[in-house]
Structure formats: structure tokens, C-alpha cells
């Protein structure tokens, strides 16, 4: 089959690789019809997530048709159309029982989990296409993919719903939702969201659905800020304004009640601390650049909530622990417990309460995935989300 493989920093290629096979009775093989490139894939593309190996197949946002099921799978059958969560979870362990699916204890093979135990104290769950730290599972930017524990994760989707409407159930919609949920929004609240990428834009929609009085979005790309505005947010371009001052003015001097860092470990900008982080990251003295998170914690009102869907991989410097503690802030974060939110979010899409397709700026055949990565990485203003279609001929025009 054809699949998008990582070969090195900013080097991804579509190659012919062996077809996946059923390994365990609860597996299924999915023929991928749509798969997206995520901001999290950019961290892999940029080589800042450890334990990726040349030849690894990327992709954790995908959906398609079930073409084969293991004998232990009582839920799926050949021909079903499903969206697959990026988190691999067994459904039975202590964590899955608590619906903390991204903490699943059984989906990261032991020899790989040792690495996450060393870094994080306990093993992380398995994720599709996300380096060997999270299990080394081949991802879904491919024609076919093996889905472990396929009786737990995949959600069947109604025939009358288009791929593009439901694809983002695999990750960014539940991620935006959980980010807003972690804000514990109360009536009258202002929520400030750093980053108007796909995750930030879904966090904005979710916060408004949950009753936020005002959502303020922060980024530096005019087109992404415009999308935030269309969703109902007020916006701040951090290139033109002092973010902290602007937030103070927009909240009657109090500051936002809750803040969301939907930027993660590769913060843009040339603030002093960000330049410091660039230098330290280059010298491998720090793994992540947490400028947006520092700013969010600083701007959050006393007693407020800090929600961090943005991905961080390792260790940061100059973390404002004093501000967090002295202001009495609550910090909540995590890889999304995708499975927990799927039926409810599918209903919201069906009832047109959440708009998903507005986000898609490009649809490309799988063969053009390397071009997609380049665009999503270098032309972020106009490239809001790229959906790859493995079924399309290589010569198909982008839409
Ligand atoms: N927790 C999870 O389960 C989960 C799931 C999916 C994605 N993520 C993470 O969420 C983050 C966002 O993902 P995405 O797909 O939206 O990525 P993206 O790269 O498309 O968007 C990030 C946005 O942040 C903006 N940004 C950069 N620096 C900023 C700053 N200093 N202030 C304000 N905005 C700034 C960028 O301009 C960009 O628009 C990433 O870190 C991704 O890895 C987490
Ligand atoms: Zn993703
Ligand atoms: Zn589990």
C-alpha cells in the first residue's frame, strides 16, 4: 500500500510499504477514505518529538471503511464506515473504566512504554502515528491501517453524513471540546484562547456553546483570526498589541476567567522569553517553547482556570509557577479522552450546532501529502486544515 512516511526533520515521503494485517482478535483493518494533517504532526515534522524513526507512518486523524475484522471483535463488521480516535484504548483497564482513555494502561507495548515511564513516571497510552514513545503504531495517512481495540474506539457514522463533516471527531473537535470543558465555564465568564489553529477554533466554538459570555482569541495570522471572529470571538493580533494589556482592557481590569493554550510546544513570536526558548531548544537544553503558556498564566485572573490542550513533550524553563500558585489557578491538561465525547459530538454535528467543514482549506490526494505538510507548516495563514484523500488519483487537482 501507499503511506506517508517520516524520513527526518521536514522530510516526509509517500512510499510503498507492506499492507497491515490483523495481529490481535480485537483488531480491525480500515481502508482510509479521509485523513487530516494535525498541528501535532507538525511537531513530528519539525523533529521536536523524540523517538520517531525513519520510515514511521504518520497520521492520527482518519476515517474509512472496515475491510477486515478480528474474530474477537463483536462490534464492527466489514463495510462499516467509522471514524477512529487518535487515542488507542483497551476499554477495560482502571483508566478506561474512568473514561480517562488517553491514560489507558494496556495500549502501549511494554518495551516502548518503558520510555514514557522514564520521561513521565508512568507509561502513556498508545497513539496512532506518533513516535515510539506512544507505541510506535503505524498511522492513518495511508491507504490502510490496523486499528487495535477496534471494539472500543471507532464510532460508526451515518451514511448521510459526509466524511468532511465527521472526520474531525478523530481528534481536534473533541480536543477543542475538552479544552473548553477544562475551563469549567460559568455564566458571565470570559475565556481567552491562544492559537487559532484547528484546536483553538474548536475550543472557541465549544466555549461559546458551554455559555461563555465572551471569547477572546489570540494569534498573528489575519485569516485565522478572521475565522475566529466569524465564530463569534473577539480577537487580538499579538503582532500589533500587548496581549496582557488588551485582555485587561477587554475584561474590565480583571483578566480572563479561564485561559486556553491551544499553541503548544512551538510558540511563535519574538518576545524575549521566546527568543530565549529558541536558543535553549536549539542547544537541546530545553525541549519545548512555552511562551504562550507563560503569557496565558500571567494574564489569567486570580482564582482562574488554565486549560492546556497544546502538546508539550518534555521539559521547560522559566515556568511561572509563582504566578500559578500565588493567584490560586487551576491547571488542567492532557491528551484528549476522545472516546468519551464521540456520541455527543456526533449529535452536535448532525444538529448543526457545531460547524466542522469551515475549517478545511485544502483537499489533496495522499500522494501530495508532502506538499500538504509543507503548506501547513509554512503557509499557516491560509492553510487552516488539510484533508488527504487516499482514494484520489495522484493527478487529482486540489479542491
Ligand atoms: N491535547 C490533545 O489531545 C491535542 C490534540 C490535537 C492537537 N493538540 C495540540 O494542540 C496544539 C494546536 O494544534 P493545531 O492543530 O490547532 O495547530 P496549529 O499549528 O495549526 O495552530 C497553532 C496556532 O497557534 C498560533 N500561535 C503560535 N504562537 C502563538 C502565540 N505566541 N500566541 C498566540 N498564538 C500563537 C499559530 O499561529 C497557529 O495559528 C498543538 O500543540 C497540537 O499538538 C493537542
Ligand atoms: Zn491531531
Ligand atoms: Zn485501557
Report what the structure shows.
α5 packs across α12. The strands form four sheets. Strands 3, 4, 5, 8, 9, 16 and 17 form a seven-stranded mixed sheet that branches. Strands 12-11-10-13-14-15 form a six-stranded parallel sheet, with helices on both faces. A two-stranded antiparallel ribbon has the order 1-2. β1 and β2 form a beta hairpin. The protein has 13 helices and 17 strands. The mean pLDDT is 95. 29% of the residues lie in helices and 20% in strands. It has 399 residues and is α/β, with parallel strands linked by helices. The structure holds nicotinamide-adenine-dinucleotide (NAD) and zinc ion (ZN) (2 copies). One zinc ion binds next to α2. Residues 89-90, 92-93, 95-96, 104-106 line the site of one zinc ion (ZN).
Span from first to last CA? Answer: 24 Å
SSE-based structural type: alpha/beta
Query: Could you tell me the mean pLDDT?
Result: 95
How much of the sequence lies in strands comes to 15-25%
Low-confidence stretches: none
Amino acid at each position: 500500500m501507499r503511506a506517508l512516511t517520516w524520513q527526518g526533520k521536514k522530510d516526509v515521503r509517500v512510499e510503498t510499504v507492506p499492507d497491515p494485517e490483523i495481529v490481535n482478535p480485537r483488531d480491525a483493518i480500515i481502508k482510509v477514505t479521509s485523513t487530516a494533517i494535525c498541528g501535532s504532526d507538525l511537531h513530528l515534522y519539525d523533529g521536536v518529538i523524540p523517538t520517531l524513526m525513519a520510515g514511521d507512518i504518520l497520521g492520527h486523524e482518519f476515517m474509512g471503511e472496515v475491510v477486515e475484522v478480528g474474530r474477537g471483535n463483536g462490534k464492527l463488521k466489514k463495510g462499516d464506515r467509522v471514524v477512529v480516535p487518535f487515542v488507542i484504548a483497551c476499554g477495560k483497564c482502571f483508566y478506561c473504566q474512568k473514561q480517562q482513555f488517553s491514560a489507558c494502561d494496556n495500549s502501549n507495548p511494554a518495551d516502548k512504554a518503558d520510555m514514557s515511564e522514564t520521561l513521565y513516571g508512568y507509561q502513556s497510552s498508545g497513539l496512532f502515528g506518533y513516535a515510539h514513545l506512544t507505541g510506535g503504531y503505524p498511522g492513518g495517512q495511508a491507504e490502510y491501517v490496523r486499528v487495535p481495540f477496534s471494539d472500543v474506539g471507532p464510532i460508526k457514522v451515518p451514511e448521510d453524513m459526509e466524511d468532511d463533516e465527521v472526520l474531525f471527531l478523530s481528534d481536534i473537535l473533541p480536543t477543542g471540546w475538552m479544552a473548553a470543558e477544562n475551563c469549567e465555564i460559568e455564566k458571565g465568564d470570559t475565556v481567552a484562547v491562544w492559537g487559532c489553529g484547528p484546536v483553538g477554533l474548536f475550543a472557541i466554538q465549544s466555549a461559546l456553546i458551554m455559555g461563555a459570555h465572551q471569547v477572546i482569541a489570540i494569534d498573528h495570522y489575519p485569516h485565522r483570526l478572521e475565522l475566529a471572529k466569524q465564530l463569534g470571538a473577539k480577537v487580538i493580533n499579538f503582532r500589533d498589541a500587548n496581549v496582557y494589556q488588551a485582555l485587561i482592557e477587554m475584561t474590565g481590569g480583571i483578566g480572563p476567567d479561564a485561559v486556553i493554550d491551544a499553541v503548544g510546544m512551538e510558540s511563535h513570536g519574538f518576545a524575549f522569553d521566546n527568543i530565549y526558548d529558541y536558543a535553549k531548544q536549539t542547544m537541546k537544553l530545553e525541549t519545548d517553547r512555552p511562551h504562550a503558556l507563560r503569557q496565558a498564566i500571567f494574564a489569567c485572573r486570580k482564582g482562574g482556570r488554565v486549560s492546556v490542550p497544546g502538546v508539550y513533550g518534555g521539559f521547560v524553563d522559566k515556568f511561572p509557577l509563582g504566578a500559578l500558585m500565588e493567584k490560586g489557578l487551576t491547571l488542567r491538561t492532557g491528551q484528549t479522552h476522545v472516546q468519551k465525547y464521540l456520541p455527543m459530538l456526533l449529535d452536535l454535528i448532525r444538529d448543526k450546532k457545531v460547524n466542522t467543514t469551515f475549517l478545511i482549506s485544502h483537499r489533496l490526494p495522499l500522494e501530495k501529502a508532502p506538499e500538504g505538510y509543507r503548506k501547513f507548516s509554512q503557509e499557516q495563514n491560509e492553510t487552516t486544515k488539510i484533508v488527504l484523500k487516499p482514494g484520489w488519483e495522484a493527478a487529482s487537482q486540489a479542491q
